[in-house]
Amino acid sequence: MQIKRLKLSGFKSFVEPAELRIEPGLTGVVGPNGCGKSNVLEAIRWVMGESSPKSMRGAGMDDVIFAGTAQRPARDFAEVSMLVERPTEEVSGDVALAPPGDVEITRRIERGAGSAYRVNGRDVRAKDVALLFADAATGAHSPALVSQGKISAIIAAKPTERRAMLEEAAGISGLHVRRKDAEQKLRAAEANLTRLDELMGDME
Ligand code: ATP
Question: What is the ipTM of this complex?
């Protein structure tokens, strides 16, 4: 999967709509202190489904919405859209969600109302977006997104955390989510069968 474009509006310091085109190859974000470099990386993690406000350097998720300055009022919503190219081999059981080719994922948060996701303009669940990225061996917690302090965090990580990183890099973390879903369905089916046995026993 390749990230091709990022659009931000009302996200942290990006109060005005901004569009960043990301060309193939290595991309570096440079600029003076406090200009919003980390906010760009956080926007990528956020649109991929980041659910921890703390890891977005906030107390609550509404803190990603432009908070206002002495000159400008605060905004009521923040929106980030990311255009990615999805190769055929990354599309597994979710062709209906997004076929191979260019896919635009959008996350929008309204103050006090939480987040909503869209894929190619269609409303989807947060889980669908998480799976889409997990199948591409990436996501909000991908080790490929290296923010400040991440290197020392990786060195200090517990073996189980390192294993999760390796699984993500190997592209199998999506399978874990699907396995959990399948196990839940299996348990529900087993409970139904037990109930059916009881009912049949009562009838005999
Ligand atoms: P450094 O090089 O010092 O790490 P940086 O370029 O990574 O800085 P960021 O940390 O991305 O900069 O951006 C910090 C700026 O974003 C600060 O000016 C902060 O006030 C602003 N900011 C963060 N959240 C919001 C928000 N919700 N509303 C308005 N501005 C915000």
Answer: 0.94
